[in-house]
Every structure is written in C-alpha cells, then in structure tokens.
Amino acid sequence: MRTSQQREIWLNDHLDLYNYACEIGDSDWQEELMATIRNGPPSESDETDREERQRKLWQEYHVLNHKLLELFSLLKTSKSDFEAQGILRLMWALKSRRLEVGRRLVL
Questions:
Q1: Residues 41, 14: contact at Cβ < 8 Å?
Q2: Which 3 state secondary structure label does DSSP give 1?
Q3: Tell me: the pLDDT tens digits for 46-105?
Q4: What is the C-alpha to C-alpha distance for residues 96 and 87, in angstroms, rounded to an integer?
Q5: Measured between alpha carbons, how far is 95 from 69 in angstroms, rounded to an integer?
Q6: Under 8 Å CB-to-CB from 17, ≥6 apart: which residues?
Q7: Rounded CA gap, 56 and 62, in Å?
C-alpha cells in the first residue's frame, strides 16, 4: 500500500510538471497532467504490472542485442554476398524491433 508520503511526493512531482507545462505553454500536456492528477497515483497492482512489462521489455532488448552480436560474427565469416545480404536483412529486422522495444522502455 502506498504511504501518504509517497502519494504526496507523487502529487508534488506532477504539480511541478504541470507548472512547467504552463511555463512552456504546452496546453495538451497540461490537460494530460491534470487528468493524471485527477485519477491519482497508480495503484500497487498497476505499478507491479508496469514493472513486469518493463522487465520483459528489458529482457527482450538484451536478447535482441545478443542475436545482433551473433549475426555480426556470422557476417564477418560469411562466404558469399548472397549469404551476407541475408544476414544483413535479418540484422535490419532485429534493429528495427530493438528500436521499437527501446521506445517502449522507461529509461
């Protein structure tokens, strides 16, 4: 269960962001922050779900990196242009997926 101190910190952080959004004149962000403040801090189960999604995304990110390193090694030892082109296509697909996963990560 969230303590009152954690809720207070959450609210203060969001109010600071709201004030900053006002300063820079970003009305869309102001509305989004106000809706978030009205809904209150995420529940523990929401937080646990978010943490689990982030853990899985990091795991996928690391797997993609490992596969890219393996393909890079294969590329260096490829025997033909045809084989190299196939490896490069796979690498581009993995890089695209890695970018997508990276965007979804909270860094």
A1: no
A2: coil
A3: 677 888 899 999 999 999 999 999 999 999 999 999 999 999 999 999 999 999 999 988
A4: 14
A5: 11
A6: 29, 33
A7: 10
Are the CB atoms for 88 and 75 separated by under 8 Å?
A: yes
The token pair that represents 38 in the structure block = 């009205």
- 95 in Cβ contact with 54 (< 8 Å): no
DSSP structure string for 11-70: HHHHHHHHHHHHHHT-HHHHHHHHHHHHH-SPPHHHHHHHHHHHHHHHHHHHHHHHHHHH
Could you tell me if 21 and 29 are in contact, meaning their C-beta atoms sit under 8 angstroms apart? yes
Over residues 23-41, mean pLDDT: 91
Six token digits for residue 7: 């809720």
